């Protein structure tokens, strides 16, 4: 198992749809193990395969839930259902961040509940249901696999603020396309 580099906004793998996993090969198992290590090193609550540069429809998560233990696991070929009625944006409550937009936070309204269906590494069907932060995490990670970053969904002034931040930090256009969470902190990328 190993910590892999995390792709940064502008890296091609983040802006393309990922491909369905047809078979859980030894390479896929290694990838998933490395994704757990990488997520832990980066202190993230979720990580999609294209965030380590692999265009496969897989994400891992380790997401805090109030009053319960963390929701933790892997989903192969996830399909998302957004549930409930989106509430108006709350700047304080709706902050969202991403290891591929490291060290930045912007408010984004999400659906309050979400359900993801998919399979685990053994091919068993799994259903994940979440609300609040976990619902946000499920929506955020499936967005990644569809080729979208949360900053692509920002509205109002945050859209341009996020664009400015990306420019200021020298991502994409000056060649910073990935970072190593075993040696670097997100805010220093
Ligand atoms: Zn992300």
Q: Short summary of the structure?
A:
With 189 residues, the chain is an alpha+beta fold.
Name the shape in a single word: globular
Enumerate the strands of the largest sheet in spatial order, edge to edge or round the barrel: 2-3-4-7-8
Give the end-to-end Cα distance, rounded to a whole number of Å: 23 Å
Secondary-structure element series: EHEEEEEEEHHE
As a whole number of angstroms, the C-alpha radius of gyration is 16 Å
| Mean residue pLDDT | 94
Task: From the structure above, extract its key features.
189 residues; two-stranded antiparallel sheet; 9 strands; binds zinc ion
Write structural notes for this entry.
The chain is an alpha+beta fold and 189 residues long. 22% of the residues lie in helices and 30% in strands. The protein has three helices and nine strands, in the order βαβββββββααβ. The chain has helices at 26-41, 132-145, 157-168, and strands at residues 6-7, 46-48, 58-65, 68-83, 95-98, 101-107, 113-119, 125-131, 178-179. Strands 2-3-4-7-8 form a five-stranded antiparallel β-sheet. A two-stranded antiparallel sheet has the order 1-9. A hairpin with a 2-residue loop joins β5 (95-98) and β6 (101-107). The longest helix is centred in the first third of the chain and has 16 residues, at 26-41. The chain binds zinc ion.
Compile the SSE list and pairings:
Elements: E1 6-7, H1 26-41, E2 46-48, E3 58-65, E4 68-83, E5 95-98, E6 101-107, E7 113-119, E8 125-131, H2 132-145, H3 157-168, E9 178-179
Antiparallel strand pairs: 1-9, 2-3, 3-4, 4-7, 5-6, 7-8
Residues 98-100, 140, 144 line the site of zinc ion.
């Amino acid at each position: 198992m190993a910590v892999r580099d995390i792709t940064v906004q502008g890296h091609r793998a983040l802006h393309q749809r990922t491909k369905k996993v047809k078979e859980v090969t030894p390479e896929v198992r290694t990838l998933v193990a490395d994704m757990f290590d990488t997520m832990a090193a980066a202190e993230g609550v979720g990580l999609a395969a294209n965030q380590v540069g692999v265009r496969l429809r897989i994400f891992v998560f380790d997401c805090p839930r109030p009053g319960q233990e963390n929701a933790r696991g892997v989903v192969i070929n996830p399909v998302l259902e957004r549930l409930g009625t989106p509430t108006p944006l709350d700047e304080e409550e709706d902050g969202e961040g991403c290891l591929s937009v490291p060290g930045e936070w912007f408010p984004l309204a999400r659906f309050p509940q979400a359900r993801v269906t998919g399979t685990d590494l053994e091919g068993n069907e799994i259903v994940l249901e979440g609300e609040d932060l976990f619902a946000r995490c499920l929506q955020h990670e499936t967005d990644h696999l569809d080729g979208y970053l949360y900053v692509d969904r920002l509205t109002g002034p945050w859209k341009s603020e996020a664009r400015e931040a990306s420019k200021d930090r020298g991502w994409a256009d000056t060649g910073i396309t990935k970072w190593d969470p075993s040696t670097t902190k997100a805010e220093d990328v």
